[in-house]
Design brief:
This protein is of the alpha/beta class and 416 residues long. The chain has 2 domains: 2-200 and 388-406, Rossmann fold (3-Layer(aba) Sandwich); 213-387, Glycogen Phosphorylase B (Rossmann fold, 3-Layer(aba) Sandwich), CATH 3.40.50. It is 40% helix and 17% strand. It is built from 15 helices and 14 strands. It has helices at residues 16-30, 81-98, 116-128, 142-146, 154-169, 178-186, 213-218, 240-248, 266-275, 292-296, 319-326, 337-345, 356-367, 370-384, 389-406, and strands at 2-6, 34-40, 58-63, 66-71, 107-111, 132-136, 172-175, 194-196, 225-230, 255-260, 281-284, 301-305, 330-333, 348-350. The strands form 2 sheets. Strands 3-4-2-1-5-6-7-8 form an 8-stranded mixed beta sheet, sandwiched between helices. The protein has a 6-stranded parallel beta sheet with strand order 11-10-9-12-13-14, sandwiched between helices. β5, α3 and β6 form a beta-alpha-beta unit. The radius of gyration is 21 Å and the shape is globular. The two termini are 22 Å apart. The model is unreliable at 407-416 (pLDDT under 50).
Length: 416
């Protein structure tokens, strides 16, 4: 089978969509399938093309057996609704124009979080007359409304009409959470074509490891209990809560805070930390994918946090599974399905989103409770085996195989 995958995030970018797509495609190649990815020049989140790449009309490379076609797009930093929309729309056009040059395709996959890429997938499906699978990573445009990026009005309603069209016309939808599936079914989408393949962790890369003491020393974390946030610093993450918790703990000289990553809110967070004179806080820009586990190894506790809004109760942050795999206790400030995973797997403590006092109390409880901390750490790697990326890739592959077979007279895929 030849799988054509459309995504505007792909390695060497290190965000969650890039990692999931690459790790799934890599496993599909191992299983004997041909995989072609159409993406753009790596630039997330700063809007600057990575060294060694160019934002040209078209280029090709191979990554672990995956054929990667990079097309031109309008590049901007991950901030500002209008410019980001131009970024997304330009990739949609370029990807649609490039796809017909890929021969022998059996199935097209297009991934969100924004659905301009899914629009490209739908158009390419019509051009090539092949089935289209919509990988649903976010309920967009609802998520941009939830963070206040765009107010209710004609634009949102138009985007929602496009969203409904994509759900209706997709041959299958692969949702990353059960909550997303439930939402779609309530909105009238056929439950039989919605399949759940959650996020997970690449257990070949993420596992328990000793602290990188040299790295810890370079950041001023010698002998400290390190609390870290690793990932995108965006509007949705409300990371001021972590700074406020650090402020509440400024009397504890034995704790340090690490922020690793980039995003639209990072400059404001750094400025606020400086204004608050938070000497315990360190900010580090995004690092290459192979270096990320070194920084995870520094953490005694990992903060996972999203703004307190109903929509985010349906989200499962992918970094949760990496924390599990590395045996790092989680302080989980996200309500809903992901909080239930943390409780069920016993890998962390849940606190109310945007409640700095509750987060500070959770940090102190772990600092002063080594037995509880050790118990949480021990549960993580055991739980991570149930979220092994290679097994999840196989689950999604079965959906793709069945959908491709449907157009040749086979039976439809059974929903998860």
């Amino acid at each position: 089978m030849h799988i054509l995958f459309l995504t505007d995030n792909f390695p060497p970018e290190v965000n969650a969509p890039a990692s999931r797509t690459f790790e799934h495609c890599r496993e599909w190649v191992k299983a004997g399938h041909q995989v072609t990815v159409i993406t753009c020049a790596p630039n997330f989140p700063k809007g600057k093309v990575y060294p060694g790449y160019r934002n040209g009309f078209r280029s090709r490379e191979r990554m672990e057996g995956i054929e990667v076609i990079r097309v031109w797009s309008y590049i901007t930093a991950n901030e500002g609704f209008l410019r980001r929309s131009l970024d997304y729309a330009s990739f949609m056009v370029s990807a649609t124009l490039a796809a017909p040059s890929v021969k022998g395709v059996d199935v097209i996959v297009a991934t969100s979080p924004q659905f301009f890429t899914a629009c490209a997938g739908r158009l390419v499906s019509m051009i090539l007359r092949k089935p289209f699978v919509f990988e649903l990573r976010d309920l967009w445009p609802e998520s941009i409304r939830a963070v206040g990026a765009v107010k209710d009005g004609p634009l949102i309603r138009a985007l929602e009409a496009v969203e409904e069209h994509l759900y209706a016309r997709a041959d299958a939808i692969v949702s990353v959470t059960h909550a997303f599936k439930d939402t779609l079914v309530r909105r009238g989408v056929d439950a039989g074509k919605v399949h759940v393949v959650t996020n997970g962790a690449d257990l070949s890369r993420f596992s328990v490891r000793p602290r990188d003491e040299g790295l810890a020393a370079s950041l001023g974390f010698d002998g400290k209990f390190v609390v870290g946030y690793v990932g995108t610093h965006g509007m949705a993450h409300a990371l001021d809560t972590v700074l406020e918790a650090a402020d509440r703990l400024r009397h504890r000289t034995d704790v340090g805070f690490l922020f690793l990553g980039d995003g639209a809110s990072k400059a404001a967070l750094k400025a606020r930390a400086q204004a608050m004179q938070l000497d315990s806080v360190r900010f580090v820009d995004s690092v290459p994918k192979e270096d990320v586990p070194r920084y995870w190894s520094l953490l005694d506790a990992s903060v996972i946090h999203l703004r307190r809004t109903e929509l985010f109760t349906t989200v499962i942050p992918s970094k949760l599974f990496e924390c599990m795999a590395m045996g790092i206790p989680v302080l989980h400030g996200v309500s809903g399905e992901s909080a239930e995973i943390v409780r069920r797997e016993g890998c962390g403590e849940v606190f109310q989103p945007e409640n700095a006092e509750a987060l500070a109390d959770g940090i102190v409880a772990l600092m002063d409770g080594p037995e509880r901390r050790a118990a949480l750490a021990a549960c993580g790697p055991r739980a991570a085996r149930r979220y092994d990326r290679s097994a999840l890739a196989a689950d999604m592959l079965r959906v793709l195989e069945q959908v491709a077979g449907l157009r040749r007279g086979g039976q439809p895929a059974k929903a998860a």
